[in-house]
Amino acid sequence: MILASASPRRLELLRQIGIEPDQIVAPDIDETPLAGEPPRAYALRIALAKLVPGDGFVIAADTVAAAGARILPKAETPEQAEKCLTLLSGRRHRVYTGVAVRAPDGRVASRVVGSVVGFARLDAGQLRDYLDGGEWRGKAGGYAIQGKAAAFVDFVSGSYSGVVGLPLHETASLLRGLGYR
After folding, report:
1. Which fold has domain 2-177?
2. Catalytic positions (predicted)?
């Protein structure tokens, strides 16, 4: 079993359902969205692109936060995170996680799981405290629902684990469908 992700959250999620990867490989791919690419299509394309070579089962995923048709970045600067969180404040947005699995015989199965997340209106102090903590770094939409940003979330419809980074039910179903025991 290969997990094609350097995300510690994805590893924790897999362990939650009793799967321990034999190898973890961080794919090196260009994650730039294509012009006009819808968030759902982007999440699937990137998940499939992350399927690294290997002899066993390979699991890859990508999570995207979207405000309407706009793909929000994986925040790398405080300014990016602030822009994302200000946009999300007081409204609902969608989170899409594409998951792709390749079996040892080369068959590939994939799925995109969409969830709706609602944020309470953030005041300047909440925003500043969150940004100062740095938890937003590298996170889709500039937040980690499993961390301190949980205090901002007033609504979730869909897959909580999908919002974190790997929809567990769907991942387990894809694995079973490809013969993983």
Report:
1. Maf protein (3.90.950)
2. 62 (proton acceptor)
